Amino acid sequence: MIAVVGREAGLSKADNAVIGQEREGGPSSPPSLPPTAHALSRVPRSGMPLGGALPLGTCPDLCPEAERAARERQRRLHRLEAAPARAVKEYARPAAGKARPPPSQLRPPRVLLATVRYLAAEVAGRADVPPPDVAVFVWDRLRAVRLDLLLQPSAPPRDAAAVLEAALACQLCVPGPPGGHPGEGSGAGLDPQLLHTQMQEAFGSLRRCYADSPEVHPRQGFFQSLFLLYNLGSVEALHQVLLLPPGLRSCPALRRALAVDAAFREDNAVRLFRLLGALPYLPSRAAQRHVGSARRRALAALARALGTSRGQAYPLRRLARLLAMDSLAETGALCRAHGLAVEGEAGDEKAVFVRGRYTETGPLPALSCGLLVESKLRGLSLEQVVMGEEGEEGEGHRHDTG
Description:
The protein is mainly α. The protein has helices at 13-19, 35-41, 65-73, 109-123, 131-150, 157-173, 192-212, 220-230, 235-242, 246-249, 252-265, 269-278, 281-287, 291-306, 316-322, 328-337, 382-386, and strands at residues 312-315, 341-343, 350-353.
């Protein structure tokens, strides 16, 4: 067991607050609720006796009829809801003092699971709509799914976990829309930190469901591993995983995630990128946000080790293999973005490490992750991945780091 002695430098206070919510009362105390849950705890139960069991929702559709009709009248159907029959309930922030929605406005767990399946199968992969618009739509509808489930605390734990697992997997498969300035393009004005917080809250909802349930959930080890991979290098996240029962920690997915986390925090680039290359698709999605910083740290280590006053050449092809890059062109772009020259004939380029030339003044260049992520779908659909039909314990493509 490790002792948590402070906050890690790589994460913000908000990150540590969200990840560490379950630790505030000690390991045996119940996890604290996210802000949305606290707001809902103040909502009156609309005539239900105090402590009485709340009924499950009865809405049979992806979107309640009243909402669908109102949004159609107001011409607020999204472009991905071209046909009213394909409308999906949108997220509406709960307000203190507002009556709890009646069962007819809430979708039961089986309908919520069907909603997530629909989003993964019919919406997430739409190529005729700009990706930011797809992401805005999917993330909003997944928030509505989690809110509907939160309003049905009597839902069977196994059903609730299945909904939260599928929703989180879908969220990982549809990267959040980029931030920007208000009014400038699709998806503009969305705060990346807010989207990151939403993802952390999605993990928190699922992990609380596991903690509160007496049942053993078949996919729990796999989703606990996604939590760690999404939070690589976080002392808080590692502490949470190490508090899990030994039998759960010993599952292949969690052992693999612990190995990736160890290589990441040790700055062992060779081992890290070899392990990342062997991950299946969904774990690769969870770890993807750390790839850029890991490449930068590896490049900085090479600059310290190889930098000379006259400059030392390093084969670009070898560097591309080491960092699991998709192409020599992107490898060269990464070097130039950090002040390193690239010389030589096409196909035989070399990065030149001159002492003092390496710099991190600019942002990381936008680089693809085809080798480490996209290539691992291998003909599977996003629906299969989200619903756990792709063989979660399988391996990704290994790559040569020699």
